[in-house]
Amino acid sequence: TNKGVATMDLSFEGAGNRDLTITPDGAAAGSPNDAGFLRNITVANDNGTTTMTIADSTADGAAHKLLVAGNISGDVATDANDLRIVVNAIGTAAGDNEAETLEVKGNIDLGVGTITLTGDASDDAVLKLSGAADQAIEGAIISTTDDAGSMVIIANGANTATFASAVGVSGGAGVEHLQVLAATQGSATFSAA
């Protein structure tokens, strides 16, 4: 399993639609749980749709994380081609008490793209913001199931996380939890989008 390193970039290039699923093999279950590492994620052209899915492992009942040390840049000229990210904590079995986390230390720019958190009552799909500087987040954050299995964690110390797009959708795709961790003393700014 190539877990990546904090200096490795992921770039979506070439013609046509791109669809990448990142799934841990479960071999490192336990403490520490499976973790993958990337520096930056970039959509390099406007040649088709791009979807990246962070999926549950079928091999264990442990939590997993993809850590992006830099930025996610997925805003291209055609709105329909902006990067879509799915964090799916359910996998092959609902209710197995797993969590899938996308942790980002830089900025997220998806344009009209989205981050979709897919979980259930015991399987949390998580977006964690843990930058050492201010973070800007553009792109709606939605939950597949209204008010269930979805969480946004702000853990960026004394820095500010600015959300330029919607967090949850009223009446059907609301994010269940917004959590601010201990020692976080900055601020979160939400737009009127």
Structural class: mainly beta
Gyration radius, rounded: 16 Å
- Cα(first) to Cα(last) distance is 40 Å
Individual helix count: 0
Largest sheet: 10 strands, parallel
What general form does the structure show?
A: globular
| Percent of residues in helices | under 10%
Q: What fraction of the residues are assigned to beta strands by DSSP?
A: 35-45%
Mean pLDDT: 85
Number of strand segments: 16
Low-confidence stretches: none
Order of helices and strands: EEEEEEEEEEEEEEEE
Topology:
Layout: E1 10-12, E2 18-22, E3 35-38, E4 41-43, E5 50-55, E6 64-68, E7 72-73, E8 84-88, E9 99-104, E10 108-118, E11 124-129, E12 135-143, E13 150-154, E14 160-163, E15 177-180, E16 187-190
Parallel strand pairs: 1-4, 2-5, 3-6, 4-7, 5-8, 6-9, 7-10, 8-10, 9-11, 10-12, 11-13, 12-14, 13-15, 14-16
Please tell me about this protein's structure.
- The chain has 193 residues and is an all-beta fold.
- Helix content is 0%, strand content 42%.
- It contains no helices and 16 strands.
- The mean pLDDT is 85.
Short recap of the structure:
With 193 residues, this protein is mainly beta. The protein is built from no helices and 16 strands. The strands form two sheets. Strands 1, 2, 4, 5, 7, 8, 10, 12, 14 and 16 form a ten-stranded parallel sheet that branches. Strands 3-6-9-11-13-15 form a six-stranded parallel sheet, with no helix packed on it.
